[in-house]
Design brief:
single chain, alpha+beta, Aminopeptidase, four-stranded mixed sheet, three-stranded antiparallel sheet, 6 helices, globular
Length: 187
């Protein structure tokens, strides 16, 4: 998610303000970020942001990184930093030094997002209700196929989200771009 070409797909909506933190010429961390007015967000155009750290970085260095970010952004006119941590499941190491450092600098928790993971090798058993729904779908000849009809998808999604006073995050054109990007990246 943090590759530059992926982040650029919506550069027209987000003012990139990503930061690189160096110590003695050595890159310690990168903070994918965007800025709107006096608020820096790690990164508003992504599901999550957070510090991307060198594997050699220890907790004290992460605290130093956050202090440097705060000092730099204050001088640049930023009055608020919104930090969206990388979900634990995606971490290369499980120490969560960034969350500890945020606690140490007195950050305020304003939101906590739910993160759900399905381990394909340890998949949960299907409930009776789920099995019944699958049987019903088969009985009604429901089939699943791949499609690139992004306009139709956005239209359907819009009608569903309308009930919740919400709108799709991505346009059909952006979905096509993201689909093309993921095909190139993951295949």
């Amino acid at each position: 998610m943090f590759k530059r070409d992926f982040m650029e797909y919506h550069a027209d909506r987000f003012n990139d303000a990503s930061l690189m933190i160096h110590e003695d010429g050595v890159l310690l961390a990168v903070l994918p970020a965007s800025r709107k007015d006096d608020v820096l967000t790690s990164h508003a155009g992504l599901t999550y942001g957070g510090l991307v750290l060198s594997q050699k970085v220890k907790a004290d260095a992460v605290l130093t990184c956050l202090e440097a970010i705060a000092s730099f952004t204050r001088a640049a006119g930023v009055n608020k930093i919104v930090y969206k941590a990388i979900p634990f499941i995606f971490a290369m190491q499980g120490a969560q030094e960034d969350l500890y450092a945020l606690f140490r600098v007195g950050a305020t928790l304003t939101r906590r997002d739910l993160s759900s993971v399905i381990y394909l090798k340890r998949r949960l058993k299907l409930s009776k209700g789920r099995k019944w729904l699958i049987a019903r779908a088969k009985k009604n000849s429901l089939v699943m196929t791949k499609s690139t009809n992004w306009e139709g998808f956005v239209e359907l999604l819009s009608s569903v989200l309308e009930r919740h006073d919400a709108i799709p995050v991505h346009s059909a054109a952006e979905l096509a771009l993201l689909s093309d990007f993921s095909l190139k990246t993951f295949h």
